[in-house]
Design goal:
CATH class: Alpha Beta
Distance between the termini: 74 Å
Strand order of the largest sheet: 1-8-7-6
Number of helices: 8
Order of helices and strands: EEHEEHHHEEHHEEHH
CATH superfamily: CBS-domain
CATH architecture: Roll
Shape: globular
Strand content: 15-25%
Largest sheet: 4 strands, mixed
Number of strands: 8
Helix content: 25-40%
Number of domains: 1
């Protein structure tokens, strides 16, 4: 059944036209007793930044810079999580050591060679996180000696999925604590020192 669709009359674009931007809830400042979900990167609200295991370390670094993140989820073509790759992995000694061990150029080192594999990762259950405060997350990261931790829930079919993540650097920024170095021990010392004042 054919129908007539009249064209919409165009209008001129004005000289001072801006553009629409998504509204994002910007927290003014969180406290150590604020809900933990306030500082979680929630993948139901923010698109995960991903990389394939066979991509190069240089491609991973470019993606981190382009997207302004310090952690990539390493996934396969079916979007199953194989591990994580952090900025410390990419910018540290791992790529050079791996290149020497494999007898290749650093530019040939792949993500799979230096990532933290799924088997070595631990995650927090979203139900625990929803009942926790920022202080619980800081203590958890400190106890694990990690800069990041993943949060999992279940999809509609009951399968585990990565729901979000926590970053010590992001938590410190939201708490209003200056980070002077990237080492985990120093980050937590900065958080504790600033919160003690």
């Amino acid at each position: 059944m054919a129908r007539d669709y009249p064209a919409i009359k165009p209008i001129a674009l004005q000289a001072d036209s801006g553009y629409a931007q998504p509204t994002q809830a910007v927290l003014e400042r969180v406290r150590i007793d604020s809900p933990a979900v306030d500082v979680m990167t929630d993948l139901t609200k923010v698109t995960a930044v991903i990389i394939l295991p066979g991509d190069t370390v240089d491609e991973a670094h470019r993606r981190m810079i382009q997207r302004g993140v310090r952690l990539l989820l390493v996934v396969d073509a079916d979007r199953r999580v194989h591990g994580i790759l952090t900025a410390n992995d990419v910018l540290g000694e791992k790529p050079v050591q791996t290149a020497v061990q494999q007898g290749v150029h650093r530019s040939d080192v792949q993500v799979r060679d230096i990532m933290t594999p799924r088997a070595a990762l631990e995650a927090l259950d979203i139900r625990e996180v929803q009942a926790a405060t920022v202080g619980h997350i800081v203590a958890t990261l400190k106890a694990a000696g990690r800069q990041h931790t993943l949060v999992v829930d279940q999809d509609a079919k009951g399968r585990q999925r990565v729901r979000g993540m926590f970053s010590a650097t992001q938590i410190a920024r939201l708490l209003g604590v200056a980070i002077t170095t990237e080492t985990v021990a120093r980050t937590f010392a900065d958080i504790e020192a600033s919160l003690g004042h």
